Amino acid sequence: ETVVLRNGSGKNEVRILRSEISELRKDMKVMMAKLDSLKPATAGGCSGCGGKKKAGGCGGGCGGKKKAGGCGNNRKTDATVYDITTEDSPVLGPVDAAVTITMFADFQCMYSIRENTKIESILKEYPDKVKFVFKHYLLAFHKKAKPAHVAAELAYIEKGSDGFWEMYNMIIAKPRELEVPVLRGYVESLGLDLATFDEILADEKAIDTLLSEDKAEAKKCKVSSTPTVFINGLKMANRDIESYKERIDQILAALENATDEGQKVSSTSGNAKDMDVKSEFANAKCPIMASPINPDKVAENLIRSYRSQKIAFCCAGCPESWDKLSDLEKNAKLAKVSL
After folding, report:
1. Reduced to 3 states, what is the DSSP secondary structure of residue 222?
2. Is the pTM of this model over 0.70?
3. Across the strands, what pairs with 16?
4. Helix (H, G, I), strand (E, B) or coil at 288
5. Which domains does the chain have, with CATH numbers?
6. In the chain, % of residues over pLDDT 90
């Protein structure tokens, strides 16, 4: 009689004789080799396996350790450039930075916590050019995560981005201490409304409502595990610093070339491999594709860069276009962009 282990897709399986199980328990290296043979399609974070040894991946509950085949960078590449809404999310760094790193994370996921160290390093290396945007993505089996996310979002609502990052730093400093009494202490220390915190925690619907926008954004961007990192809308298949820097340098180089050459810029959405590098400029500066910015400043920069050229400034996902710079602010408002 055998025990069959299959990966999530059911395409790969490994069979273990029941008579082998006792021996396998004694030799964890052999057990790991058996499980590793499942070769999961995706890995490198927390997914929906509930912390069980399934599909070769790490669920939560593994404490960030390599269980069931481990979590590596074996991910399928998604070359889509997503239009990620960042206006109502906490931002760290210059709001008008050309490069936006967006991370969907779960506070109980050790991989999410570790990712913060890499992002901090990037922000230090590109202090005026990169900003970091946080998005909540709670995994159902991480039972301690909800109070932490509620506390962080409450800090953002009451004290803006500064308040959020204060709470964020408290939480990630002690990621294994997410009990409600600990979080209530954080809420009190920041001068937040403790009664509101308690009221939200007591109501599952209130929690869902509080975090619903990020949940919808995650679905739109096909997020299924934590952490998931995007740089200017492109999902990063490899979450190492060198891959991050390569993507950032490509964006900055495209911006510099567009300005130096005085070329027209355009923005398109779709497969990154099919996109003209000039789209990076539009995506970084456009008031729809990036954070809200002063339209007068945009117009001033465009005039300085393109001088006498006639510019049709178009944004992906928006029916409006700007044929005259003087109409930029009006048309942006008509497009319901918050300026």
Report:
1. coil
2. no
3. 3
4. coil
5. 1-76 (no CATH), 80-235 (3.40.30.10), 259-334 (no CATH)
6. 49
